[in-house]
Amino acid sequence: MASVDGRTKWVYFFGAGQTEGRADMKNLLGGKGANLAEMANLGIEVPPGFTITTEACNEFYRRGKRWPEGLEEQVKENLRKLEQAMGRRFGDPANPLLVSVRSGARVSMPGMMDTVLNLGLNDVTVQGLARQSNNERFAYDSYRRFIQMYGDVVLGVPRHLFEERLDAKKKARGVTEDPQLSAQDLRELVEEFKGIVRQQKGQAFPEDPWEQLRGAIDAVFNSWNNPRAIKYREIHHIPGDWGTAVNVQAMVFGNMGEDSGTGVAFTRNPSTGVKEFYGEILINAQGEDVVAGIRTPLPVAVLKEKMPHVYAQLEEINKRLEAAYRDMLDIEFTVQQGKLYMLQCRVGKRTAMAAVRIAVEMAQEGLIDRQTAVLRVAPEQIDQLLHPTIDPSARVEAVAKGLPASPGAAVGQLAFFADDAERMADEGKKVVLIRAETSPEDIGGMYKAQGILTSRGGMTSHAAVVARGMGKPCVVGCGALDIDEKRKIVRVNGRELREGDWITIDGSTGNVYVGQVPLVQPELSGYFATLLEWADEFRALGVRANADTPTDARTARQFGAQGIGLCRTEHMFFGEGRIIPMREMILSDTKEERERALAKLLPLQRGDFYEIFKEMLGHPVVIRLLDPPLHEFLPKEPGAVAEVAREMGVTPEVIESRSRALAEANPMLGLRGCRLGIVYPEIYEMQTRAIFEAACRVAKEGHEIEPEVMIPLVGTPGELAFLKERCQKVAEQVMAEQGVRLPYRIGTMIEVPRAALVADEIAREAQFFSFGTNDLTQMTLGFSRDDVGKYVPTYVEMGLLKADPFQTLDVEGVGQLVKMGVERGKQANPDLVVGICGEHGGDPASVWFFHEAGLDYVSCSPYRVPVARLAAAQANLSKPRAGGKARAVEAHAAD
Amino acid sequence: MASVDGRTKWVYFFGAGQTEGRADMKNLLGGKGANLAEMANLGIEVPPGFTITTEACNEFYRRGKRWPEGLEEQVKENLRKLEQAMGRRFGDPANPLLVSVRSGARVSMPGMMDTVLNLGLNDVTVQGLARQSNNERFAYDSYRRFIQMYGDVVLGVPRHLFEERLDAKKKARGVTEDPQLSAQDLRELVEEFKGIVRQQKGQAFPEDPWEQLRGAIDAVFNSWNNPRAIKYREIHHIPGDWGTAVNVQAMVFGNMGEDSGTGVAFTRNPSTGVKEFYGEILINAQGEDVVAGIRTPLPVAVLKEKMPHVYAQLEEINKRLEAAYRDMLDIEFTVQQGKLYMLQCRVGKRTAMAAVRIAVEMAQEGLIDRQTAVLRVAPEQIDQLLHPTIDPSARVEAVAKGLPASPGAAVGQLAFFADDAERMADEGKKVVLIRAETSPEDIGGMYKAQGILTSRGGMTSHAAVVARGMGKPCVVGCGALDIDEKRKIVRVNGRELREGDWITIDGSTGNVYVGQVPLVQPELSGYFATLLEWADEFRALGVRANADTPTDARTARQFGAQGIGLCRTEHMFFGEGRIIPMREMILSDTKEERERALAKLLPLQRGDFYEIFKEMLGHPVVIRLLDPPLHEFLPKEPGAVAEVAREMGVTPEVIESRSRALAEANPMLGLRGCRLGIVYPEIYEMQTRAIFEAACRVAKEGHEIEPEVMIPLVGTPGELAFLKERCQKVAEQVMAEQGVRLPYRIGTMIEVPRAALVADEIAREAQFFSFGTNDLTQMTLGFSRDDVGKYVPTYVEMGLLKADPFQTLDVEGVGQLVKMGVERGKQANPDLVVGICGEHGGDPASVWFFHEAGLDYVSCSPYRVPVARLAAAQANLSKPRAGGKARAVEAHAAD
Fold this sequence. Notes:
Glucose Oxidase, domain 1, TIM Barrel, D-amino Acid Aminotransferase, Chain A, domain 1, alpha/beta, ATP-binding (chains A, B), 895 residues, eight-stranded mixed β-sheet, homodimer
């Protein structure tokens, strides 16, 4: 606590060349107070005043809601200073000083006390104001407003009582707008308002300006702990002991004629980022009038003609403020009879597009350095730049909410079956495919649809995974949908929609809207590319993509992925015409049948791998062997069953019975991942053969290549050792056949909790780890990602979870296992490369954690690669990693 | 290594008053050598001889299979000593010394070298033997046997060549048995055998006794690393550097007339444990003859009449041996012309029943102390005492193998449906119920069946859990069964069985047999009770039972449970007539419907709790609120659906559609446990009310009671805090209504891996923890307990898992989380009581781990309580816990 002459300093003066505060004193003076002081320090005209510190507020509470020792004295001293600066006196009948009183915490808190304006008016001073302004109506209108505000905010008189009386007055005078009331009307209203106060509070409205001020300051202090403020602090995790400052400032009036006005503006365009003075002004009005919406504001540019000297001043001030704050600012100002006063300045909010452009241009202008530019854009915003979004000006209400499975918004006509979606799309219609859940049979329709909506499933259900891969908007697990497939009707919260009805989905929020909601199309600017290039310079964490097809791989490269961290071999079989041999393989009863089916799959996989390797030349490609529960691929509809039966030369009953035998109670914890490779070794052998045959072909074409084979769902070192040996055997065989020698790597997923616990033992068998945080989250929390729709939203709502753990890593729980896995793994095998390839690889908060946990790279879906690049850079700039860049980045820097 | 006069001592003499070894020198002399030395030390007559140490064997390998420096010298010295002791000389034509050569490792290893007898015979000495024994036939028979054994064991001549020649000789002579061959025949055979050796080895059979001995010793050394021995060591985890000793011992002959003989016996009855000399003897025979099965042995008791002085000597020796070894012994002896020689003694194998009785009686006799008695019985054996077992003498082969889900064997006629099982049982038949998997609807039939057999499901499937609760034999997950319910046929490995066919299952091994296999019924002796009482004195770990009904609770008390560690409230509704309101509750669509159904459940639960509390007066009862996925209770058959629909006044279609809505992809990771309590608070409120209303009634009857409420599946401290608060509210309400004040406790299961990771935070909200190691194993390993049948058996077979992790805790993986949970929990809350209530609570190896991990108690199914009591005592005796008994035991010691 500052002290002067042994006294604690509770009050800081600003303006009139006597400013005591600075911008960096926000903790003590609050944001508003510190910024006012800073503007004054910069030589910018602000109405003078003083700030009572947040410490005074805290002391007020410590003393049982009594003013701290010395505060009254200091307020009075500063009031005298203010009187001298303004040449007016508080309560002076002829030349009264009027002030505003505002709260101002360290951060803006909309839940707190409103402003009190025109404080200092009473039955005597109002006449002085009338004489001085030569405008009786203005004086009584100000007085009327003061009583209303003070009554509401300080005395707690219900607001509606004043408003009803005002309405009654207008009715009595046969008018509809406030300005139509005369000075006499307003004078009467003043008396009536005072009557309301007397009746409600049992005592007269305070006429003594000091008493008024004292009450207003008390009210600001008290407002810190009103229920709204407490609730707001809870939600935003703001500590209760920050306290609020109180700003007492001389009044200036924008409503004193055509040479007066009030404005709100930005130093640059907050929507586009263009470097232009952007905002609105109301001539002959006070700030209040903007809010009331009585008159339409004009663009600030009109000042260029109407008050050219003011406009020039504002431009100059903007430049000075940006130089001081090194950011785009949101400013408020008032012009009183041709004189410009700045009332407020703060860092301005902006769209993603503006954020990127402003950051890049400011760095180019030399206002900030590149590091700062990279830190200026929130990675969460990046998604807006890559996908269509709901027009923020659209006034629409969601009819239901599901899980935001793949970002972006889509508008289309409802199709209930994949076939219908294809047909309708071929007719030139825009389609949204709605299903209970999707299956591989739906791929064609999904591809043709604008977006996908399901009533079941979680963030990693088939629909979600495929949609993200396609970069297509998708909302899943929207339980409110009651889909009647047979009749092609969906009921949702009392509405009934049919095939062809329009619907809009927002895959970034999970919202579902009925009808066509206007969208804003994304635009990828050069600024965006520049910012991400800068980000790449500063990050320690490598960024790869999860890509399962050559198309995905191309997209991944375009978004700047440094390799493929996860190529899911099973997704290759979701494609058309490929599901049949896959099903044959799964439904085989004997090794021979299975090998026959695998022989059909081999050339398909080899071809895909070859294409992917070619797309990614010079970059690592990690290919994961078959992972999911086999039943995911089983035919569900009679037609599909018959087709597989025909192909395999058995009856449909046989296929159905084998399908039943494959059914599992909890397939996520069943026969999948490396367990498949152990129970049916021929599957992994075929896949390994496909990988190495493809790699050998690439090598023979003269390229360097080092395939990486990843074994999923390992829980014990023995599993990995066993499968590694078999994999090496096939690799050696193929290389001998092809007459080619290749370097290659074999590693594993860490996704079973046990694997993290025994990571040291597993690391002795592995060349790399990749954390499968989707499965690790499922098992560590015991949450089935396909079923969480039934309880996770409730949990997040109740605060039992901070976020959906499938979106943002559960650092306290799952994070412990990740840390354990990295530490134990790297200790046992210092050459181990460690990455993560779950959905969390594209989540900024999670990326931050992975940076701190010492991972080498993250891998995420292609469309999230830019987000990850930016988040990784910010993490490293904020908390630089010891030892510099990770091996994964270094290793491929030369590629 | 011992050394004498600077030379390493490789050879230890025994017998003839010159013994150099002792019983505690097993590591150096092997088991056999040390025991021979010990007997000699005890003044018991053994044929003298010497032992070449295991160190010599190791040195032999270190020197590339050459004898260690000084060994030859020492063997020769000891041979001279032996000659002196016996008054015969090696190779002496008139009075030849004959010896046996045997291997003898630290532990008995059946895979190693066989014995060589009669070594020292050759064409010259055989005549001396003939003269001395005055029995030419005996001499040549001995010679023939020697060449055969030596040829096989030392020279590696295929055994069948000798046997074929022997058979040819008998054929030529027109006889069928060996003893019918004359001395001349045998003399010819000797020559023919030598011919075989010459032909096979290209050199003559060694005539020089020293060369014979040297070859035999080499052969023993070499046998340590023959493939059979290596395999045996691998399986039994015996280190390869233990080496084997070699025992060279003077021959004695039990086949020198009616005053000779050879016997194998036990100091006490190894089947029953009765203190009686028990074994068999062959008069005028060598040990070999017993094995050959040519003659039927007589009970040793015949010696009382035939050779009373020998019998008296044996009784005296038994007493001396038991006093020395403080255990029941297995002995071998030979009587040569009236003189008794002991050939071997070792601790005898015994049945569970005998083990218990011997341990208790020896302690009562003062031979051992009670601690030792408790350590003498393997807890794994206890099961044999509690359940019928397959008669070990039955020669049967299993037709299939499933998981051993509930111990004991059962014989019955096949029933394919629960209704059939009930009907058949009512007709007086013994029934085994066979199902793909069981559901609550099958309870009636399960209850009436002798045993239960399923083709699906794991160790904790419905069938397994219910069967264990009933103490009924059960085999689950027997994948080889192909059940055709419609036709009531089951196919299994090529056989076809129908309703009414006899089948036998062994729930202790998982074996399934076709037909009626003879069983041995268990018998619980007073010795058993005594041993367990003693065990209770020595253990630190409390033992409680998992009991869900008043009947279970009674059983638990009878088996000595110190309380109920887990009362599963859902199992109460598996009972007849109770499933309907449960289904109503689950299928309710609105809170009102649900509350109506809950109101029907309340009195049922309250009644059960009251009965359980009364059974367990003075002991803790931990009641777990509803845990399992709701779909477990859903009606599956049309009849059941219709019944629920009728009860609820809706159509069957409505019930079916609600059932579908409740279906989950992975129910084990779905809406269950505390998630149910959070999403549908009224369920837990009803259960809490039932608990406290029951407890208040007990209290009003004048008993002290402290109910403990356990919240399942908690993963975050917030879940527990939220539910605890609601639970406390209901508890306070009920106590106010009833006018009773009770102490009570609220705690949680630790079964989600995350809960173990944040155990410190959870412990601040909990009064007790109970590890749910079933679920913890499922999630930590990612193994669905219902689906593991598809891969865990393969894993165990391949050595990828040491044991089924649902039977024996995975200490390396899951164990880490248990330790973490205990440590973090107790550190954060020193008053925390920590138990475990998974199936592992009754597994001896797991109990050992829980003891070491510092848990307060284990809780297991009632029939495993004795196992747990014994295992807990052994763990504490072997590794006493610092700080003595656990709180859980102390707390209820006074009960």
